[in-house]
Amino acid sequence: MTVKLQMLGTGSAFAKQYANNNGIISTSSTKLFIDCGITAPLALHQLGLTFDQLDGAIITHLHGDHVGGLEEYGFQMMFRYKRKPKLYIANTLVEPLWEHTLKGGMSQPGLECLEDVFDVQPLVPDTSYVIDDECSIRLIQTPHIPNKSSYSLLVNETFFYSADMRFQPQLLEQLVQQGVSSIWHDCQLVGAGEVHATITELLSLPPAIQSIISLMHYGDERSEWEGRTGLMPFVEPHHVYTIVT
Ligand SMILES: O=c1ccn([C@@H]2O[C@@H]3COP(=O)(O)O[C@H]3[C@H]2O)c(=O)[nH]1
Ligand SMILES: [Zn+2]
Ligand SMILES: [Zn+2]
């Protein structure tokens, strides 16, 4: 049972040296985007991949660096590849993703809801879903923007992918106690962490937790922080990581 994760990009929403923090999670039989932001179509192309090589996407929340590539993904799959990709998304985000994000560009006769474009798999948060023999996923609602739903992702109950979330030391502690052995966390290197965890906050975690954290969703200042992130390495874009063995 092996699950791999390759990041198309590891950058913050405003980063220009690193593409949006979007990944491709894969098992021997399934390949899914984790988020599909503005830069995802180009980043995918630069990796030598095409949309039809993926089975679908898992979506964490509705910011452009996480969903801004879905219009092109949906249209390419519809008109070029003639197949509906799976869209794993929290049940609370199905309607807003269509009404507030995609409808303006995608609605036309025959395309009137998200289900007309994607094979929508609405996920109930805190519930585990089997993707295939090797992989299960569970969404956990985590705080990001006040009054907006946003989710982190637990893979096989052992790998935690924060997506975008504020510093939640108690949650991280609890996850470790429940058996999580690897955490990929978004990280704001400069400025106040209003909607993301800052590096200063993450550096305050006990060494035992830091030692299982890798940093993603970082800004273009990354090079100034090499060697200054405690026990927490940066996730490298394009590197293929085995996240579950
Ligand atoms: O209240 C807010 C809302 C947003 N923002 C910025 O806009 C970005 C949107 O994508 P993101 O969630 O990856 O990162 C966010 C921040 O960089 C912010 O600083 N404060
Ligand atoms: Zn983001
Ligand atoms: Zn966000």
UniProtKB/TrEMBL annotation:
Record-annotated Metallo-beta-lactamase domain positions: 19-217
Catalytic reaction list: 3',5'-cyclic CMP + H2O = CMP + H(+); 3',5'-cyclic UMP + H2O = UMP + H(+)
Gene3D superfamilies reported for this sequence: Ribonuclease Z/Hydroxyacylglutathione hydrolase-like (3.60.15.10)
Family annotation (InterPro entries): Metallo-B-lactamas, RibonucZ/Hydroxyglut_hydro
Function: Counteracts the endogenous Pycsar antiviral defense system. Phosphodiesterase that enables metal-dependent hydrolysis of host cyclic nucleotide Pycsar defense signals such as cCMP and cUMP.
Protein name (Swiss-Prot/TrEMBL): MBL fold metallo-hydrolase
Species this chain originates from: Paenibacillus arenosi
UniProt lineage: Bacteria, Bacillati, Bacillota, Bacilli, Bacillales
